[in-house]
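Morning F.,

Quick status update on the modeling queue. The single chain you submitted on Monday has been processed. Sequence for confirmation:
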Amino acid sequence: MKYLITIIFIFLVSLGLSVNNLKATETKATLIHTYEADVTGDGQHEKIELKGILFSPDTTFYRKVWASITSNNQKWKINYNGGYDPSLQLIDLNHDTIKDIFYQSATGGSGGLYNYQLDTITNDKISNIPLPEQTYLSGEFEDNFNVTIQLTPSEKPIQIDVKNRADDYIRLGIYNKEGKLLETNKSVMIDPIAFFEPLLISESKGYGLKSYQQISGAYHADRLGTVETIWYFENGKWIILQTKWIPS
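Structure tokens below.
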């Protein structure tokens, strides 16, 4: 009996150690990258450490990511959404002569989407700057195997001939064989912005952002093209400098 109790005790102790070791592994922070830049406007470079916790030891997906920012006498922490390949770009996007903190990580989904976040430190406080959104885009199927895409309210709609996809659309019940639309007000699929990249507008204006947004027909893989938009932050809001349609 004593022998059995001893075996059970040893098993429970080893099980507890295994669980604790697993928890320690799961919660261990990894230093992803270290940056140095003046992000407070004090004329001194702050140390910025991008850290994360992996979802599991055998994956490269970070379930938790944050930035630790250290100056001579102060510290800040910015939390981010997790993802693959997290990184920071330190660049002045709001044009106050102080570098902002621009975060990105890949979601790993089939749509090629990324997580983004833009923050700035003003008067020793962290402020989030919402990223731009395309609010004008629209697209509809039309008779005779046509699709119209409206990029802005003032521009003429873009006409797309989709006759090369007719068999698929007839099979899906969008058109009949004569090209008559079987469902009125049938909209195309407009994805959210998948990707941002900083873009130098000019030496005098500084940097803006360029966004990429996919538009598909009947389903996500039925790609029609991409909307490329150039944004500029002015007077506290994002304005569109240019919107361009790139057909697939």
